[in-house]
Amino acid sequence: MNKITIKDVAREAGVSIATVSNALNGSDVVLPKTREHVLDVAQRLNYIPNVNGRQLRAAQTRNIGLFVSSMAGSYYGDMADTIHYLCKKYGYELHIFIVDEEKPLLPTLRNQSIDGAIILFGVLSEKDIRQLALSRMPTVFMDHEIAEENISSVIYDSYGHGRMAAEYLLGLGHRDLMHIFGVSRNYDSIQRQAGFTDALRDAGVALRPENILIGRFEQSAAYRSMHRYLKEGYPLPDAVFAANDLSALGCIRALREYRIRVPEDISIIGCDDHLLCSYVTPGLTTIRTHMNELGVEAARELFRLIGGGTGSVQRLPGDIVVRHSCAMRT
Amino acid sequence: MNKITIKDVAREAGVSIATVSNALNGSDVVLPKTREHVLDVAQRLNYIPNVNGRQLRAAQTRNIGLFVSSMAGSYYGDMADTIHYLCKKYGYELHIFIVDEEKPLLPTLRNQSIDGAIILFGVLSEKDIRQLALSRMPTVFMDHEIAEENISSVIYDSYGHGRMAAEYLLGLGHRDLMHIFGVSRNYDSIQRQAGFTDALRDAGVALRPENILIGRFEQSAAYRSMHRYLKEGYPLPDAVFAANDLSALGCIRALREYRIRVPEDISIIGCDDHLLCSYVTPGLTTIRTHMNELGVEAARELFRLIGGGTGSVQRLPGDIVVRHSCAMRT
DNA sequence: CTGAAAGCGCTTACAG
DNA sequence: CTGAAAGCGCTTACAG
Known about the structure:
By secondary structure, chain A is of the alpha/beta class. Chain A has helices at 6-13, 17-24, 32-44, 51-57, 77-89, 106-110, 126-135, 158-171, 187-202, 219-231, 245-257, 291-306, and strands spanning 63-68, 93-98, 116-119, 139-141, 151-156, 177-181, 212-214, 239-242, 267-272, 286-288, 313-316, 319-321. Chain A folds into three domains: 6-56, lambda repressor-like DNA-binding domains (434 Repressor (Amino-terminal Domain), Orthogonal Bundle), CATH 1.10.260; 58-155 and 291-316, Rossmann fold (3-Layer(aba) Sandwich), CATH 3.40.50; 158-290, Rossmann fold (3-Layer(aba) Sandwich), CATH 3.40.50.2300. In chain A, strand 8, helix 11 (245-257) and strand 9 form a beta-alpha-beta unit.
């Protein structure tokens, strides 16, 4: 068990630990010759600085924390890579944490092992937020809207996505619409539905209350909801806006079992532009939400905050990717 | 900037910092009454223990590190969730790090901010491995075979996967086979190819050298290789074993452009059982590698090592998921 | 049961 | 340019 510390290096090199520290940290006060010697010894002893010792004393950690609810399903993976890439570019390490809903997030956030945080998902109470604001820890939220001195959010324009879907379907001549809703307390879900229903209302088009199904952003839940809907004999709508692509696919699966053709009998538009969209048949028309750009903007925003900038809210617009799951009303 | 330390709590509660520490850590030496009082004060002051202070002193960190090359593409995301779940169950925190190929991995590993590591991907030199062995840090590798006192590996039986694919295709009557290779220095790639070619050799079936194409585990690379193969007018093989599902899909895309039908004209088997397999048409027959179980086993193995167990090598067998991309030779 | 004190490994003014 | 010393926030023997 060779636990080499700065002391060992100092002794071996015949200098003080202060000099070792200075040499190692590239401080230019130390004589080049001394420096090289220290570096040599450190290398030879396989010296690895202890982060805890360093961080206990140092003002900054050069670590960024990324907090995610889950890494599954290819949603956040790409984004994590993107954020990691940017952190590296700015000279920071990225630590990814999967958030445990039962465990308070705040302690980890305020641990002072990180200089800033990007929260892709995390439940914080009002009180937590107030504390976070007081702590001055630069933080970027991606799961809802908030702005404080040291807190920004970089989010999807989910309200806009909802409107966009509605307007696209209306433009194809559809009038009897349906929405596959996501998750009740999810900000994007709520916003997408709001945008969708507002656009219908603005166009003077009624939405049957039974035409809002629960999809929970999952294939299976959307499948079950749609299946039940058809089984109970409700009239088939003209078109469906699903809160995400997976639930659109679940919906299509149920329709297929009833021999209802997409897009001949019903049009479907999803949201996200998931990898699957271009693989399935028919290709799924969807709203591209630019997930990676969201990651890029979040990282940039975090570094702006770390650099002393003040919090703001940023919304990323989406656009429609037309494939083959929507058709003009005949 | 309210940075509350154990000192503040001690002062406010009118006790020593030792007592605060004991109260907070649930040590039963402290009088219940004192304990509650301290806990109250800590709560009121929003005290959050500093991890660095603690870890500098404490023997264990209760942290596990997971090292991944990339989180993109839905490969490792599910596994990360699985491992996180198990860590939680064992009372450990999981820190996920995306490995930077240019940056030495060893320092992070030996940081002593973690009690153990699972390495899904990481380049370590012979010397690094020796040091790792000396450091006694419990470590589980998933990207190649290795066993030391404190080091285990839990890996796919990739050689077996290759054999399995070959035997399945031979069993369908195919004799002119092709392999879409993955990445040259990847352990699983090499093993899959070895298993495949050994099985052919054992069956006395020749493999044309030009029938090993480069797929790099990617759709696009496999597409390009297959496209070039067809363009140059080589005879169409009976069946293809692709090193993973994505490259199988790239291969299919190229075939489709040449109006070659799967499985009527050519059979294709992939590897992994990626989410996509059941979505594409035709459904992709593949070798299920049980990625999640691999994660489960890796975590279990790590905790066994942490508990004092000694290193071993564990291989997970795969099995064939039959869909619609392979047919009997007619 | 409680507290004074040492020490974990490091950085950073401050002397020299 | 170099070193002695203080101190970051905590835990843990050790006295009392």
